[in-house]
Amino acid sequence: MPSADVAGRGTGRLVRPALPRRRSRRKVAVLVLAGVALVAAGLFSVTTGAYAVPVADVLSVLSARLGLREGGASVHDTVVWDIRLTRILIAIAVGAALATSGAVYQGVFRNPLVEPYVLGVSSGAAFGAGLAVLTAFALSVQVLAFVFGMVAVLATYGLSRVRGQTPTVTIVLAGVVIGSVFMAGFSLFQYLGTEEQLRRLVFWIMGGLHRSTWSDVAVVLPIVLVGCAIVWTYGWKLNVLTLGDEEASSLGIRAERTKRVLIVLATAITAIAVSVSGIIAWVGLMVPHAARLIIGPDHRYLLPLSAMLGAMFVIVCDTIARTITTGEVPIGIITSILGAPYLIYLLRTRLDYFSGRG
Amino acid sequence: MLDVRDVSFAYGSTPVLDGVSFGLVPGELCALFGPNGTGKSTLFKCILGHLARRGDVSIAGQDTARLGTSRLARLVAYVPQEHRPPFPYLVREMVLMGRTPHLGGVFGPSRQDEEAAEVAMERIGVADLADRSYTTLSGGQRQLVLLARALAQDTPLLLLDEPTASLDFGNQLLLWQTVRSLTAEGRTALICTHDPNHVVWFCDRALVLGREGRLIEDGPVRAVVRDDLVRTLYGPVSEVVGYGEDTVVRPLARASSSGVDPSSARASAGHALGAE
């Protein structure tokens, strides 16, 4: 029986594998469950804080605001609607953006250890924000952070293209180079800035959602959600892309073009998120890993699950950040404290996973 | 089916292929063989459009230079040597990727595509592995999954790059027989291989790439796999003998009894071909 080790041919035929439909239904159920958990996390967060608001009061504020019920200004209304809800919606946008772009970068660069900042996006955005703080630029920190985030990724991408291709090694090296150039600029701003400017720069680099306003939400949330939705439609192509450029092209995918579209989309949503939240580490690296362990590597399911888990993770971290002390702890510190042990755990227990033996 | 006319390619100033021309008819199983470094993989890449070549390639009467990526992928499927992708896709997902050039919708494969993948897995005999992770399979199993993927791609032409390289003896024969049954149905296959015996046993025709990327032989396998050709390609290490109705390439009588010193044999092979 030469083929005995190939497929157990002749023996396994009677046992039909689970039907594809049933398998995908299970994955859809996981996504629905994650959506429910996300709503629950949001509700929990809105009731929690220095000023506790019961769920019933939260619901009455919401229904009043949505025009379902008469209601006037109250303390609850201010706390729920103006302070906590904006933070939660920004947390959703930031978490979804960072996790989605992390999953995209890991797929496009065929490297499970790549993260959103590898292209120098964060350093570019930090540079832009620093420039805005220092020069009191009229168009606000967000715009310049976004512009320089895009400049950084275009520079990295342009620098790493060799004969029409972008090998992973050159793109990672180019990202390091571009990132350190922008970080040098940012350090210069810190050196030149006044004490007040320095304080703003430092808080920005550590990350925080405390300054979220409804006008931020109105800009950031729609852009991020639309961006994530477009990325999601590329889920299957991203699966094929992870096999490498030549194999993807022999399967009918225009590899270079598809990669370019995905990188620009991922960078755009990262930059817009970073521009409002400051730098929040680990989310883009850790969340796609966790999602992959839960639902598998098929990006059609991985991308939406990453977005929802990312949103949930940032909501939880932000809730901790604003309740753990009487003041406000930068959220970047919380995500790092929670993220590092998780990655160490992955590294030690799932070594096979990192070496591709999954 | 496949028409290659005057294809040349050079990496920088190093010529790899020089004026290669041949044509395959539907249902033909054709071997491409020759020593290492004579441009077999490069020729595949030129046919698939991964490298900017000179010369024309047409498949099923269509000039490939004018075809888009996905239309080309509906005409020719490529079976690479087995490898390990960075993410642990299931076997069924891997095979389903073969349906990519046929997809119409936004969100990927439809139910019909999943059924086509199922049929391909049954046909190649990997259906039992469908829910295993591709990265945990043995090299031979992975190679068969890649063949199933090419079958799911449903193209008239298949290009296989040393598909038996990591397979045990039994699986090598199984793979060849599977490919034979595919060509018996009218598909055309061009297979890059290193084993002249496999060429003799399974192929209709053989192309031989020699030094400096020229096609030095093209014809029915019995006419191509000759004693003098094998000696030209590999040096005086083997001989072609009749064995009943068959032809067999076997090593020259062991070095000790025949007096051939293996190191001098390699040296003269190197001389004949230009050292690699």
Automatic annotation (TrEMBL), chain B:
<keyword id="KW-0547">Nucleotide-binding</keyword>
<keyword id="KW-0067">ATP-binding</keyword>
<dbReference type="GO" id="GO:0005524">
    <property type="term" value="F:ATP binding"/>
</dbReference>
<protein>
    <submittedName>
        <fullName>ABC transporter ATP-binding protein</fullName>
    </submittedName>
</protein>
<dbReference type="Pfam" id="PF00005">
    <property type="entry name" value="ABC_tran"/>
</dbReference>
<dbReference type="InterPro" id="IPR003439">
    <property type="entry name" value="ABC_transporter-like_ATP-bd"/>
</dbReference>
<dbReference type="InterPro" id="IPR003593">
    <property type="entry name" value="AAA+_ATPase"/>
</dbReference>
<feature type="domain" description="ABC transporter">
    <location>
        <begin position="2"/>
        <end position="237"/>
    </location>
</feature>
<keyword id="KW-0813">Transport</keyword>
<feature type="region of interest" description="Disordered">
    <location>
        <begin position="254"/>
        <end position="276"/>
    </location>
</feature>
<dbReference type="InterPro" id="IPR050153">
    <property type="entry name" value="Metal_Ion_Import_ABC"/>
</dbReference>
<dbReference type="InterPro" id="IPR027417">
    <property type="entry name" value="P-loop_NTPase"/>
</dbReference>
<dbReference type="InterPro" id="IPR017871">
    <property type="entry name" value="ABC_transporter-like_CS"/>
</dbReference>
